[in-house]
Design brief:
single chain, about 0% strand
Length: about 400
C-alpha cells in the first residue's frame, strides 16, 4: 500500500476529487430514481397497483444491493477508478434501453441490470475517498459526496416528472439518461488517479492481503459495523417508501394535486443537498454519534408532520424528513470505511450499501402493501418505528471512544 497521506482541503486534487464524485453521484442517482417521479403514470399505463409499479424502483435498488460486494472485489483487483467508470458506462447503456421496454417483465429486467451496473459507484466511492483524502477530513468530504447523490436523485425526478406529464413516462425516463451521460463524462474527465491504493492485479501474491471472505467476516463480526449497516437498512427503507408512495397520497383525496405539482415536491431533496455536507462538517467538530442521533431525531419529526392532511405542513414535513435522513446517511456512510480495518474498507462500504439498498428494495415494496391495505396512517407508523429502532441501535452500539474514533 502507498505511504500517501491524503489530499487536504484547498488543494487542486481535493477539489477535483470532490467534483468528480459529485458528478458520479448525479450520474448514479438520477437514473436510479428517475422512475419514482412517474410511478402513478406508469401504474396507469400498465394497469398495476402502486406496490407493483414501485418495483421499477425496487428492481434497480435490488440489483445495486446484490452487486456492491462483487464490485468491491473488482475494485480491489483492477482499481477504484476503473471500476466506477466501467459501472457508470454500462448503467447508462441499460438505462437508455428502459424506455423501449414493451412490458413490465422487460422493464424490470432492464432496471435490475441497470442497478447491478450502478452498484460500482456506491460500492467503491467512499472507500476511494477514505484512501485519497486525509483522514481528518473524510467525514466532511463524504458529506460533499452525499450532496451529489441528493442532486442526482432530485434532478432525475425533476427532469422525468414534468416531461412525463407531456410525453409519457417513457420520454420522462429517457430525458434523465441524457443528464446521466453528461455527468458520467465529467466524472471520467475529472477524477484523480488513485494514489492511496494499488490494485491487487499489480501486486505480488504475498502482498495482496486477506481474502475477500476474511475481509467480509472482519466487518460482519464488528458490532460497530453492524450498527452502521442497520442505519442504512432502516433509514433508507423508510426514506424510499415515503418518496415512493407520497405521490399516490397527494394525487388522491383530500389533496387532489396534479402530477406536475406533486413532482415539484421533490424539490425537498435540496434539503438533503444542504444537510449532508453540514452534517459531515458537524461530525468532525462535535463527534459522529451526536450528529447521527440528532439527524435521526430530525427525520422522526419530519415523518410525524407528514400525517397532517394539509399541503403546506406535508411540504414542511418532507423537507425536514429529507434533511434529517441525508444528515444521518452522510455520517453513517462516511463513518463505515473509517471504522473498518484498512485492508477491508471497500468491503465495509459495500456491506453498508448492501444494507442500504436492501432496505430500499424491501421496504420500498413492502410498505406499499401497508399503504394500499391499511392506509397512510399505518404506513407512517411503520416508518416512525423504523427510525426509532435505528436510533436505538446506534445509541447501543456506537457509544465509546473506540467507536467514535473508528
Amino acid at each position: 500500500m502507498s505511504d500517501f497521506s491524503g489530499h487536504v482541503p484547498g488543494s487542486r486534487e481535493y477539489r477535483r476529487l470532490l467534483t468528480a464524485l459529485f458528478c458520479a453521484g448525479v450520474a448514479t442517482f438520477a437514473q436510479l430514481y428517475a422512475p419514482q417521479a412517474v410511478l402513478p403514470l406508469l401504474a396507469d399505463e400498465l394497469r398495476v397497483a402502486p406496490a407493483t409499479a414501485a418495483l421499477a424502483v425496487s428492481a434497480s435498488t435490488l440489483g445495486l444491493a446484490v452487486a456492491v460486494i462483487p464490485w468491491s472485489t473488482v475494485a480491489d483487483r483492477v482499481g477504484r477508478v476503473p471500476a466506477m467508470a466501467t459501472g457508470l458506462i454500462a448503467a447508462t447503456v441499460f438505462g437508455a434501453l428502459v424506455p423501449f421496454s414493451g412490458d413490465l417483465a422487460t422493464l424490470l429486467a432492464l432496471r435490475l441490470a441497470e442497478g447491478v451496473a450502478l452498484g460500482a459507484v456506491p460500492a467503491v466511492a467512499l472507500a476511494y475517498l477514505s484512501e485519497e483524502v486525509d483522514l481528518r477530513y473524510v467525514a466532511a468530504a463524504a458529506g460533499s459526496y452525499i450532496a451529489g447523490t441528493t442532486v442526482g436523485g432530485l434532478s432525475g425526478r425533476l427532469v422525468s416528472g414534468p416531461l412525463a406529464e407531456a410525453v409519457g413516462w417513457r420520454g420522462g425516463v429517457a430525458s434523465a439518461v441524457l443528464l446521466c451521460v453528461l455527468a458520467a463524462v465529467s466524472f471520467v474527465w475529472l477524477v484523480p488517479r488513485s494514489r492511496g491504493f494499488s490494485p491487487e492485479r499489480g501486486r505480488a501474491p504475498d502482498d495482496r492481503g486477506p481474502s475477500v471472505a476474511v475481509r467480509l467476516w472482519t466487518n460482519l463480526r464488528s458490532p460497530v459495523q453492524l450498527a452502521l449497516y442497520a442505519q442504512g437498512f432502516l433509514l433508507m427503507g423508510a426514506f424510499v417508501a415515503v418518496y415512493n408512495y407520497l405521490g399516490f397520497r397527494l394525487e388522491a383525496d383530500p389533496f387532489d394535486l396534479a402530477p406536475g405539482v406533486v413532482t415539484l415536491l421533490f424539490l425537498a431533496y435540496l434539503a438533503g443537498t444542504a444537510s449532508s455536507p453540514r452534517a459531515g462538517a458537524w461530525a468532525v467538530r462535535y463527534g459522529r454519534l451526536p450528529v447521527l442521533l440528532a439527524s435521526i431525531g430530525v427525520t422522526i419529526a419530519g415523518a410525524a408532520l407528514l400525517a397532517v392532511p394539509q399541503v403546506v405542513v406535508v411540504l414542511v414535513g418532507l423537507v425536514v424528513f429529507t434533511a434529517g435522513f441525508f444528515g444521518a446517511h452522510a455520517v453513517a456512510s462516511g463513518w463505515t470505511p473509517v471504522a473498518a480495518s484498512p485492508v477491508a474498507r471497500a468491503q465495509a462500504s459495500s456491506l453498508y450499501y448492501l444494507g442500504y439498498y436492501g432496505g430500499s428494495s424491501l421496504f420500498g415494496w413492502l410498505l406499499g402493501i401497508v399503504f394500499g391495505g391499511a392506509g397512510w396512517g399505518w404506513f407512517l407508523a411503520v416508518v416512525l418505528v423504523m427510525c426509532v429502532l435505528s436510533g436505538a441501535l446506534a445509541l447501543a452500539a456506537l457509544r465509546g471512544g473506540r467507536a467514535e474514533r473508528g
